[in-house]
Amino acid sequence: MPHTPPSPTCTASGDRWKTVGREILLHLIDFLVTSYGRDPVITRLLNNTRVHIMPTMNPDGFEATKVPDCYYTRGRYNKNGEDLNRNFPDAFENNSASIQPETQAVMDWIKNETFVLSANLHGGALVASYTFDNGNPVTGSLNGYSQSPDDDVFIHLAKTYSSNHASMYKGSGCDNRQTFPGGITNGYSWYQLEGGMQDYNYVWGQCFEITLELSCCKYPPADQLEKFWRDNKAALIEYIKQIHLGVKGQVTDKNGNPIPNAIVEAKGRPHVCPYRTNEQGEYFLLLLPGTYVINATVPGFKSMLKTVVIPDNTGNFSALKQDFSFPEVSDKIRSRVASCPKIPLYQELTRASAAVKPTVHILVLMTVMLVIFK
């Protein structure tokens, strides 16, 4: 029987020290649960999407804020005095910060789940910010913008949220000194950030994440929280639907068994840490409607190329399905992958570019050994 990949997984995490994101996600949980079986759109969405919600990543920081204040930042740090949104491994430079227990727990969570789309919620501004937060000349940082291979998709995701928000799309920001056209910004263009979660998730988690700044006031009065939920409700639902953009499928051997760790990428969109199939041989690639060539590679065997025409299937809650079967691969052969090291991969890529040698590309793509089981 043909294998149907499970529903792709979307995740949302609350802001690390402020009230608004935490409260909005609690409202979202209540709305999804109470609407299931009653609202046909929400019912179809949940029938076809796995949703994980983490209302807060830094409970110690939240509890540390005793007196509500719009600009007070004591609650930004965890009990050890560390800023968790500067605490992740960075793809551009060595992050000397000691990995905190909360950060490690989230990294383990990302590793153990096949997350496809994500958002982390913050406060202190009103804008949808997208990767990269950090950068170097390889990603265009000399021009004040750090561009990922999937920049068009990230712009679409940020615009989807902003345009469905009650006022974010206006781009007025929080004062006259700072405006965001269309209510979105490239993270690096706004300000450079080392060790952020959204870059980590995209590079090492194969998950497209954006940062949502949802309130100018970090700790607003309690009687304003209901309005924040109303302002964000439609945007959150439309954003979750975007997980069904692009193409998904399974890579199998000649006997129909799944092949984990096969590389599956869209031609012209190479990731510095190649995107691979999970233990069930499944892959998910977020892509805008259009024509693409999908390249599936099982190391040691000839790659397979398939041209796909991707429609906008977000309204149907199902991405285009395209499987790959390798008839020359048997179930006696399994690939053992050494996951991309948590080092500044783009820093290494810069050095390789300067030397005009594709050494790093080769090393990254050849971190797989084939093991033949007797």
Automatic annotation (TrEMBL):
Q: Mind telling me what this protein is named?
A: Carboxypeptidase M
CDD domains from the UniProt entry? Peptidase_M14NE-CP-C_like (cd11308)
Q: Active site annotated at which positions?
A: E213 (proton donor/acceptor)
Q: From which source organism is this entry?
A: Cyanoderma ruficeps (rufous-capped babbler)
SMART domains named among the record's database cross-references: Zn_pept
Q: In the UniProt record, does the keyword Glycoprotein occur?
A: yes
Q: Where is the Peptidase M14 domain?
A: 1-243
Q: Which UniProt keywords apply?
A: Glycoprotein
Please name one Pfam family that this protein belongs to. Peptidase_M14
GO annotation terms (biological process): peptide metabolic process; protein processing
Q: Which GO terms describe its molecular function?
A: metallocarboxypeptidase activity; zinc ion binding
Q: Which family does it belong to?
A: Belongs to the peptidase M14 family.
Q: Which GO terms describe its cellular component?
A: extracellular space
